């Protein structure tokens, strides 16, 4: 028995070591894309051979394998984060912006947002009401680098994985079904994109899962704190949670429904609005503009969308396609967990009808509203399916459910590709930014802000709001100002004695304003 269990562990180990190495293959070209399927196929063979070799695959053994795979996934995500840092992928929007908001709050400038509205007065809470960012301050204080923000997101990913495993262990008795559903996050490109988006909205998934763990255990010490933190995550999360609370009606938990629905609805309608009146509004946005073609307020928009849904095939077709695409990585299991999945449909409809492509394509972190619904409904769907087709009686159907998952991964280019690092550029930017005195204000080019010490205030490179020091790289990336425009403007300012050059290293330049 021990030999057979060890054999299965070795097979899984070999399969998921590819999670670390396969992205590196793409450095030599995308013709190797087919190899991305290899670890998935090895994984299926490992599970199948293990199941055939031993009918006594215990939960304890499965748990060890699951946590091993979780560690491998976290290592992969950390490697990707480091590579993105050293390849200057982490730019102003939105990583530098978030790190600076957190650091400004720690400095006493409450939620000051340099990258939105007026860089000297804008308040991020008027843009998105997200007091949850306060949780990042201790980590940013302990770790002396702006990458502390990215590391904390990795911790949140770990919390998501551990909580999901606890939920699955509590809900599923069969060890193989427990194993298969526990590793579901590995094979979900939407979850992968969220967990590697570097957006603080990642926190919604672990908090939602902690709440659900408390729900199935009837533990209010888990439910109430996670519910409160969810409300503080972002103003729209309260709306999503009010929809989720409707699922309590199916289980006749009327008190829970009334309690959570009432609080989340009242919070959504009044709390952010109350605080907005005391803030600088230069960063504020009317997010309803994304649905302005349907109306000017919630009632008009909802009414128009519903009318269009039943009067025109276009929106219904779009909704159906979006639901289908979202369900593929979950092997359509959420359909069987309709008691929760039903309330995800309004969210999918809302995003599908938006005029913003980021919403309706569920691009990166924009999937955070629906993913908790899909994970929970997939688990409920598996339990429901197992009632009709018990796993020990008919195993084939469960393996068939894996195929759409794998095909979907291949089509979605699952796994970030490792990019080549330019060590010379990294050295030049690092050594140049080290010349900036602590406590200075720095106008940094789009892709350079993460390399500025956390002891300095980072602002976007805007010639209207130039700060004391200006950090640029003529070999860098600037999506909002062309490199030609940057070079010409700096040259003119230098000629007019408005700027003084401090350092030049192979295109990396540091200027200081002349009073």
Poorly predicted regions: 26-31
- The tally of beta strands, per DSSP, is 5
Calculate Rg over CA atoms: 25 Å
Total domain modules: 2
Query: Termini distance?
Result: 78 Å
Give the overall form.
globular
Helicity range: 55-70%
Strand content: 5-15%
Strand order, sheet with most strands: 2-1-3-5-4
Q: How does this structure look, described?
A:
The chain is mainly alpha-helical and 515 residues long. It is 56% helix and 5% strand. The protein has 22 helices and five strands. It has helices at 2-25, 38-53, 59-86, 92-106, 137-142, 148-171, 175-182, 189-195, 204-217, 220-233, 237-245, 254-276, 298-311, 313-327, 338-341, 345-352, 357-360, 371-388, 396-400, 402-411, 423-433, 483-495, and strands spanning 441-444, 457-460, 469-473, 499-505, 508-513.
Write the SSE topology.
Elements: H1 2-25, H2 38-53, H3 59-86, H4 92-106, H5 137-142, H6 148-171, H7 175-182, H8 189-195, H9 204-217, H10 220-233, H11 237-245, H12 254-276, H13 298-311, H14 313-327, H15 338-341, H16 345-352, H17 357-360, H18 371-388, H19 396-400, H20 402-411, H21 423-433, E1 441-444, E2 457-460, E3 469-473, H22 483-495, E4 499-505, E5 508-513
Parallel strand pairs: 1-2, 1-3
Antiparallel strand pairs: 3-5, 4-5
Helix pairs in contact: 1-2, 1-3, 3-6, 3-7, 6-7, 6-9, 9-10, 11-12, 13-14, 14-16
């Amino acid at each position: 028995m021990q030999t057979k269990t060890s054999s299965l562990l070795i097979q899984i180990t070999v399969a998921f070591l590819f999670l670390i190495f396969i992205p590196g293959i793409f450095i030599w070209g995308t013709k190797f894309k087919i190899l991305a399927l290899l670890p998935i196929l090895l994984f299926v063979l490992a599970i199948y051979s293990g199941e055939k070799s031993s009918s006594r695959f215990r939960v304890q053994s499965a748990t060890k394998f699951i946590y091993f795979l979780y560690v491998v996934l976290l290592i992969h995500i950390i490697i990707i984060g480091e590579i993105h840092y050293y390849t200057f992928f982490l730019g102003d929007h939105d990583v530098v912006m978030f790190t600076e908001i957190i650091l400004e709050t720690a400095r006493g400038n409450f939620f000051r947002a340099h990258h939105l509205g007026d860089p000297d007065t804008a308040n991020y809470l008027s843009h998105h009401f997200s007091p949850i960012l306060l949780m990042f301050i201790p980590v940013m204080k302990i770790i002396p680098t702006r990458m502390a923000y990215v590391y904390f997101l990795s911790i949140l990913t770990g919390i998501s994985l551990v909580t999901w495993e606890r939920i699955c262990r509590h809900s599923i008795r069969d060890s193989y079904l427990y194993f298969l559903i526990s590793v579901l996050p590995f094979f979900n490109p939407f979850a992968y994109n969220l967990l590697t988006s570097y957006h603080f909205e990642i926190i919604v998934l672990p908090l939602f899962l902690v709440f659900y763990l408390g729900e199935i255990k009837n533990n209010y010490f888990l439910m109430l704190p996670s519910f409160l933190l969810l409300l503080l995550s972002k103003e729209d999360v309260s709306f999503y949670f009010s929809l989720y609370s409707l699922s309590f009606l199916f289980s006749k938990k009327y008190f829970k429904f009334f309690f959570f629905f009432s609080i989340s609805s009242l919070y959504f309608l009044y709390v952010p609005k109350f605080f907005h009146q005391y803030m600088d509004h230069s960063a504020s946005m009317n997010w309803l503009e994304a649905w302005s073609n349907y109306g000017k307020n919630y009632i008009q928009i909802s009414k128009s969308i519903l009318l269009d849904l039943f009067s025109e095939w276009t929106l219904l077709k779009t909704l159906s396609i979006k639901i289908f695409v979202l369900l593929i990585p979950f092997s359509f299991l959420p359909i069987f967990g309709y008691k929760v999945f039903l309330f995800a449909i309004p969210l999918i409809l809302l995003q599908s009808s938006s005029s913003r492509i980021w919403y309706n394509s569920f691009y990166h972190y924009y999937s955070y509203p629906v993913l908790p619904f899909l994970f929970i409904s997939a688990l409920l769907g598996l339990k429901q399916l197992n009632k009709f087709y018990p796993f020990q009686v008919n195993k084939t159907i469960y393996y068939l459910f894996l195929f759409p998952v794998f095909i979907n991964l291949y089509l979605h280019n699952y796994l970030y590709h490792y990019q080549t690092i330019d060590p010379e550029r990294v050295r030049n930017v690092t050594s140049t930014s080290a010349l900036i005195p602590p406590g200075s204000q720095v106008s940094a080019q789009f892709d350079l802000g993460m390399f500025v010490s956390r002891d300095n205030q980072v602002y976007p490179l805007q010639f209207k709001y130039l700060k004391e020091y200006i950090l640029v790289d003529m070999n860098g990336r600037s999506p909002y100002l062309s490199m030609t425009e940057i070079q010409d403007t700096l040259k003119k300012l230098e000629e007019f004695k408005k700027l003084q050059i401090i350092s030049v290293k192979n295109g990396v330049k540091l200027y200081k304003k002349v009073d």
